[in-house]
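REQUEST ID: PR-0412
SUBMITTED BY: lab tech R.K.
PRIORITY: routine
TASK: structure prediction, single protein chain
INPUT:
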Amino acid sequence: MDQTRLQLANYLVANPSANWWADQIWRFDVNPLMSRPFSAAAAAQSAPQFLPNCGSFAVEFAGDFVAQARDVRGDLNQTIPDGKMTALDLNSAFDPNPARWPRYGDVLKVEPDGTTDFVPVRRADGSVAEQTRWYGLPRDVDGDGIVRGWISGRGNNEMPDVVPLRDVARSGAIFDSQLASFPGFTFEKELPTAADDYSTSMPRNARYTLAWAPADARPTAIRFIVSLEDSSGRLGEGKVFEYVIRFGR
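STATUS: complete
OUTPUT:
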């Protein structure tokens, strides 16, 4: 693997504008059904089949890509940090008063802060908890039928679903107006157009293509969500499996 990274790094130095990642995309290049007479070529076409009867396959990632506000409230003053994490900090996540911003979870800068990116969520009892922020092609994870993307004035905390990293980075425009035009990280190769609600506006052929070069900031975890269907039709719905693979920094 180290040798492959070195070869790619040398290639990028010699060809800085090359779309090296384009030739690595081999979606749909598989033939799971071999017909007689069998041949080596037919067997080779069936080899890329990863999961038979797979109805859906999602790949998402997490990592430390943005700096977020955490210690934002003190016991005596609601806008001055006190050097510790308390319920006051957590409960500020959905504070509607801009005079008391930043809130817990707001994106301040597009740079790592030593903590995996997160999104605050409100529990059924009204308390606020921190969840890992997963990036990917927009997907509804809280079941409300809405997938909010970035629009002017919208913060990280108002985008609880899976969205592209670019959208979360742009949410820092509340504090740094230049981030409103942030084009995306270098490894975000193809992106859907940012939208108020991806569930109603994202075209069926939208893509979110990622390819990490050796010098790019890397994810700390990747999540696979797979739905397997019953080929015999006895089960009405597929079974969903989720796998998370974590990496060292």
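NOTES: The beta strands are 54-62, 67-68, 107-109, 118-122, 128-132, 188-190, 209-210, 221-228, 239-246.
REVIEWED BY: pending
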